[in-house]
């Protein structure tokens, strides 16, 4: 039997569930990119807010790339379960905040209608780093943006709202970019200036793009997870998500037309997100990417294995506690050393089975805000960053692409750079002045010497494993 409003009474009683009347609520949020992360994070907070008494903030999810999510959620009337896992066991909750999913396809008209509905007040995004269609210098890449991006859909919907005399929307980015709200605002502005310049003043005056820091580790759900969950809770949930007990959401207080009382259910609404966001990107995500490339190199599959490796752990500690932490101006009450310790504990969660290969994807889009910003700040202060540079070598080796498939929008270009420039020239081909991956860091002579020394060591494990 499959999860749905009609089958809720077949669940074992230990499973927590929403207690509000979903049928009496309207949709207030249109969310782009309704993957596992959104379901375990923003939709989970929204469910808690609805449960605490908020009304009319149901979510319609737009799945941009795959039809699978619609097939998982729509037959379940949008219901799904969130299971928190740790060494102390697990607990499951049924979330009711998602009304439905509109599948990928030709969606300009229905999405615009949804964005222009009177009840819609927020459009939010977990479309991953590459979904923002940025070129290496951070500006909008129109070739990408014009071929089926969020910008086209948003421009159409915002135009209809404006013509109908409705107020603006909050565009809430929930992706791991630095100053994600500012970036979205600028990129959307660039798109409108080319395609609908008359709408620009309305967009600037009526809409708001708050910056937000989102945090929860959400491994991709496996078939085995679903089978195990079914035998525990009593019914099948095709849209189940697995996550850790921890979650954090820090949002800039800048909304165009109200918001759920997320702050009553654990989110922090603040004037300045920067210290939280910078710490999260450079420490958590920076360490994650280092664990991914170094861990794969050492033959590991999961984050908890890599962080337990005696050769990798000291590097990751140094990356967080010395290199990244030294570049962050902490907010009052924010202790970066305690933060690093709590991150190491979360990474060591033995029940999560978070795959390194999941984190390794799209490195070209992630590295600038995770590593290069730290390298740039430290370089300007004359400090070296051997841990990040070592991780960078592991990434360079990974994207050579001769050991496992590289999942990255620049995979072809990176493999091409390797075959043209080899070990000697790869660092400049990727990170030099007009390299494939944009600033803010450019290798110095010292960095080049370091990389030339360390890079040849990477690949040895894999080279030995490869047939001659
Ligand atoms: C990870 C993130 O896949 C990745 O790149 O570093 O998804 C990470 O798990 C989240 O940002 C944690 O909040």
TrEMBL record:
One Pfam family it belongs to: Mannitol_dh_C
SUPFAM superfamilies xref list: 6-phosphogluconate dehydrogenase C-terminal domain-like, NAD(P)-binding Rossmann-fold domains
Domain Mannitol dehydrogenase N-terminal span(s) in chain numbering: 28-263
Every Mannitol dehydrogenase C-terminal domain range: 272-402
UniProtKB keywords: Oxidoreductase
Gene3D superfamilies for this protein: N-(1-d-carboxylethyl)-l-norvaline Dehydrogenase, domain 2, NAD(P)-binding Rossmann-like Domain
Protein name: Mannitol dehydrogenase family protein
Source organism per UniProt: Novosphingobium album (ex Hu et al. 2023)
């Amino acid at each position: 039997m499959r999860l749905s409003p009609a089958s809720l009474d077949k669940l074992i009683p230990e499973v927590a569930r929403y207690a509000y009347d979903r049928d009496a609520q309207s949709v207030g949020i249109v969310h782009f990119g309704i993957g596992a992360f959104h379901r375990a994070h923003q939709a989970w907070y929204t469910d808690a807010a609805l449960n605490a008494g908020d009304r009319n903030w149901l979510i319609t999810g737009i799945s941009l790339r795959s039809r699978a999510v619609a097939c998982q959620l729509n037959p379940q009337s949008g219901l799904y379960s969130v299971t928190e896992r740790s060494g102390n066991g697990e607990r499951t909750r049924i979330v009711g905040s998602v009304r439905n999913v509109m599948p990928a396809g030709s969606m300009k008209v229905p999405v615009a209608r949804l964005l222009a509905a009177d009840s819609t007040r927020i459009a939010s995004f977990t479309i991953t780093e590459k979904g923002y269609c940025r070129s290496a210098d951070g500006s909008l890449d129109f070739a990408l943006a014009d071929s089926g991006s969020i910008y086209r859909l948003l421009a159409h919907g915002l135009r209809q709202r404006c013509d109908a005399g409705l107020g603006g929307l909050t565009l809430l980015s929930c992706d791991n970019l630095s100053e994600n709200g500012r970036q979205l605002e600028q990129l959307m502005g660039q798109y409108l200036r080319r395609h609908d310049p008359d709408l620009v003043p309305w967009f600037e005056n009526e809409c708001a793009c708050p910056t937000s820091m989102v945090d929860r580790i959400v491994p991709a759900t496996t078939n085995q997870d679903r089978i195990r969950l079914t035998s525990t809770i009593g019914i099948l949930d095709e849209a189940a998500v697995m996550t850790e007990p921890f979650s954090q959401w820090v949002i800039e207080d800048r909304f165009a037309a109200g918001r759920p009382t997320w702050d009553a259910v654990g989110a922090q609404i603040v004037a300045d997100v920067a210290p939280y966001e910078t710490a999260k990107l450079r420490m958590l995500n920076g360490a994650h990417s280092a664990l991914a490339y170094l861990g794969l190199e050492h033959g590991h599959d999961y984050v908890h294995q890599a962080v337990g490796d005696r050769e990798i752990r000291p590097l990751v500690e140094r990356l967080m506690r010395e290199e990244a932490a030294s570049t962050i101006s902490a907010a009052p009450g924010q202790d970066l050393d305690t933060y690093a310790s709590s991150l190491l504990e979360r990474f060591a969660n033995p029940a999560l089975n978070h795959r390194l290969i999941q984190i390794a994807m799209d490195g070209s889009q992630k590295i600038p805000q995770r590593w290069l910003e730290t390298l740039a700040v430290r370089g300007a202060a004359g400090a070296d960053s051997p841990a990040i540079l070592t991780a960078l070598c592991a990434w360079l080796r990974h994207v050579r692409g001769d050991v496992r498939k590289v999942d990255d929008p620049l995979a072809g270009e990176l493999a091409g750079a390797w075959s043209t420039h080899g070990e000697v020239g790869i660092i400049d081909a990727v990170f030099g002045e007009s390299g494939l991956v944009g600033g803010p860091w450019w290798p110095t002579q010292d960095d080049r010497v370091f990389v030339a020394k360390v890079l040849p060591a990477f690949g040895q494990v894999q080279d030995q494993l490869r047939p001659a």
